[in-house]
């Protein structure tokens, strides 16, 4: 996997103290669902690999959703379950961190 992050996703990760490896982990083990032209990767407790002990820092990733471009290589945003994707995208319009277009497939995301 070779993920690229939008400015918005980078900002969200910094806010949430998530590393590249954390995001990659969610993409790899979370449940993937295609919807509205993007891929949602949702991490739940039940998808945690057995090797991750409950006190491991990775276990705190349960409840995290990564939104990827349809090509699966561009991270549009990252949020915690309970937060709404559309709210997050809306917020991105009001901050200087724009949701940018994917450099891989050139698909322009909600900007
Ligand atoms: Zn793409």
Task: Explain briefly what this protein structure is.
The protein has three helices and five strands, in the order βααββββα. With 111 residues, it is an alpha+beta fold. The protein has one domain (4-94).
Description:
The protein is α+β, with helices and mostly antiparallel strands and 111 residues long. The protein has one domain (4-94). It contains 3 helices and 5 strands; from the N terminus they run E-H-H-E-E-E-E-H. The chain has helices at 7-16, 20-29, 85-94, and strands spanning 4-5, 31-35, 38-42, 64-69, 74-80. A hairpin with a 4-residue loop joins strand 4 (64-69) and strand 5 (74-80). The chain is globular, with a radius of gyration of 13 Å. The structure holds zinc ion (ZN). The site of zinc ion has 9 residues, from loops.
For this entry, give a set of tags.
23% strand, alpha+beta, 111 residues, binds zinc ion
Write the layout of secondary structure elements.
Elements: E1 4-5, H1 7-16, H2 20-29, E2 31-35, E3 38-42, E4 64-69, E5 74-80, H3 85-94
Parallel strand pairs: 1-5
Antiparallel strand pairs: 2-3, 3-4, 4-5
The structure holds zinc ion.
> What is the radius of gyration?
13 Å
* Content of β-strand: 15-25%
Give the rounded overall mean pLDDT. Answer: 85
**In the residues, how many domains can be counted?**
1
Small-molecule components bound: zinc ion
Helix content: 25-40%
Class by alpha and beta content: alpha+beta
């Amino acid at each position: 996997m070779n993920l690229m992050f939008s400015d918005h996703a980078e900002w969200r990760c910094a806010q949430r103290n998530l590393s590249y490896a954390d995001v990659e982990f969610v993409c790899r083990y979370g449940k993937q669902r295609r919807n509205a032209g993007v891929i949602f990767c949702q991490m739940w407790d039940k998808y945690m690999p057995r090797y991750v002990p409950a006190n491991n820092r990775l276990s705190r990733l349960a409840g995290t959703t990564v939104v990827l471009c349809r090509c699966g290589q561009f991270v549009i945003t990252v949020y915690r379950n309970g937060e709404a994707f559309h709210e997050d995208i809306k917020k991105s319009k009001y901050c200087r961190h724009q949701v940018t277009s994917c450099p891989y497939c050139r698909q322009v995301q909600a900007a």
